[in-house]
Amino acid sequence: MAETRKASRYVVPLAVAGVAAATIGLVPALAASGDPDLPEITAQQLIEKIAASDTQTLSGTFKVTTDLGLPSVAGLADSFAGGSSSGGPSSVDPQERLTQLVSGTHTLRVAADGPEKQKLTIVDGSDEYSLIHNGDDVWAYDSASNEVLHEKGDASDRPAEEKELPGTPKELADEVLKAAGDTTSITVGGTAKVAGRDAYQLVIKPKQSGSTVDSVKIAVDAKTGTPLKFTLASVEGGKPVLDAGFTKVDFAKPAASTFDFEVPKGAKVTEGSEGADGADGADHGKAPEDLEKEFGGLFGGMVPGAGADGAGGEGMNVIGEGWTTIAKIDTGAPAPKTDEAPKEVQGFLDALGDKVSGKFGSGTVFKTKLVNALMTDDGKVYVGAVTKQALVDAANAGK
Prior knowledge:
With 399 residues, the protein is an alpha+beta fold.
């Protein structure tokens, strides 16, 4: 049976995905609008203010916009599924919803009352998708399909050594700060108004050249020390890679009824264990630890040093450090030929890829505004939040 706190990551990491996605457009949007006049504070003092923050209750709304610079994926899913969506994850599956947050713009409503009660709702027009953690119960509900997923567990069963994911904006900020080291510049970049509250801006920038990250900006509530926005900007400029932050926030304790859930009339209910053991073969009950791996991988591409666990695994070597870390993987097989892929997939890969050559031979760099990957024709893969040239240089040095 899934543990309560473990299952609750269906709610909390998804909230973090929103906050991680919403911070980037902050400075350009607010620079000309009269920023609040706050007492001067050093970067160290602001970091300490974040660390001392102990916000346990809040409710609010935030907007998430993600722009990785990817081409349209229209028709791509059907190509991978052989033209059919049957057998795919349910629309109520939290993992599918996490995936949807990595592109486009989304509005989310959140509420929290300590570690045992959280609620997040993704609003999509007239449809809503809700994740509710209340004590031993975690509910997921999709209004469009009228489907419910229910997980139930006992927090006392949780292994003590199990890795925790960042569960709040503060914890995400802590992860960024912990990973900084000598490769990073941390300063206070003025003040801002976020969701009607006065905030300081902590600006984190790579000192190294070759990273795709221009800056990380964390807007910190001046009164509570709670991060209100988290921004990730690319050296390519243009729209932020991730732009997510509160548009409304209230630190009062939400009503207890906020976290109540009653199964709607006629809804299809799937218990968490049924997806793994049930006769329908669906993946409704995918283990929360699988979600942890996928979500941890997402953060591993954002923060220097994050997601480094397993870097010494079979077939993988780590090159460099900090913001310019590159993982080298030797697949032991020639790279697949994209011209043999389905038409929709081939077009997507062609739009992503640039042909490159050097001392290493030849290959293709698959690029986004944040993470790039070089796949050589002889089957080696170099991947990191670094520029195309940094990947080519690493491949040349590897020869």
